[in-house]
Amino acid sequence: FLRVLLPNVALLLLAAIAVTWAVARALQPLIDLKQAVERRSPRDLSPILADSAPAEVRPLVVSLNRLFGLVNTQTEAQRRFVADAAHQLRTPLAGLQAQVEAWAQAARSMATGELLPLRVDQVRRMRDATRRTSQLANQLLALSRADSVSVDAQPEQQVDLKDLCEGILSLYLDAAADRQIDLGLETQEAQVRGHAWLLRELLINLVDNAVRYTPVGGRVTLRCGQSFESDKRCAWLEVEDDGPGIPCDEQVRVLQRFYRVPGTVGEGNGLGLAIADEIARAHHTQLQLAVGAMGHGLRVRVSFDAVA
Fold first, then answer.
1. How do residues 250-281 score in pLDDT, each as one tens digit?
2. d(CA 41, CA 148)
3. For residue 114, which of 54, 73, 95, 156 sits 20 to 30 Å off, Cα-Cα?
4. pTM of this prediction?
5. Looking at the domain that runs over 40-153, which CATH code has it been given?
6. Which of 228, 151, 224 is nearest to 184 (CA)?
7. How many Å apart are CA 21 and CA 127, to the nearest integer?
8. Domain 155-305's class?
9. E-strand spans in the chain?
10. Can you give the residue ranges of every domain in the chain?
11. Residue 287: exposed, middle, or buried by beta-carbon count in 10 A (0-12, 13-18, 19+)?
């Protein structure tokens, strides 16, 4: 009995091994395709090389490429629409804002009896509305420029984070002084590879958010430097404030476009952090949100690969 059984068991085992090997070999092209798709960035809609794919999977690759092409076309059209709309809005808004600012200046210089308090309030509201709308147009334009398709088309350069921080600080000194905010700077030498104009926009949005939401008499600090993270040398930017902060369960959602934490006081349209995160991701990193060093407020940090 054993003489008959053992050869049959051996044959069954060999057959199972052969079938497993054959199935694995047959499915390998699909496994390779799956891994190639999984390795891709969500923003990468470039075609998969169909010529190198086996004949069995080539129709699937062609269909995927057709889908990628359609999605890419739609995304590019949407990006162009936002950029064009922002461009079209900027010129008339700039003219309107200039007129309203002049009107507001004239209203402030008039004697109290010459202009009714109601008119003064109307001018102030109109001025604030034009400022908000102008900021929205600028942010929409920045958002379209931060798209990876636009970024990848332009060469990177070496960016000095210390110079970047010093330049942004000078832009916001007056706005901080108007609200009696202590705007500080702590810098070390730090160089990264990236797009200077986008990194400037990233930092502007972080500082603008901090100054906007920090209460009168508060503190905002810009920092940059180098450190070792995960056994590699990194350069980083950081903006910290002692404002109301963002609850931990909201720190992911505030990176979504147009999202504002319920109950947030003050002007804003929910785009500042979204733009900053979009720019960070275009530089293969992301925003890191945390509570401030004193146990309140918000600290936003962005780390990059340092350049020697």
1. 999 999 877 888 877 766 778 889 889 988 98
2. 10
3. 95
4. 0.64
5. 1.10.287
6. 224
7. 73
8. alpha beta
9. 157-160, 182-187, 191-194, 219-229, 232-241, 287-291, 298-305
10. 40-153, 155-305
11. buried
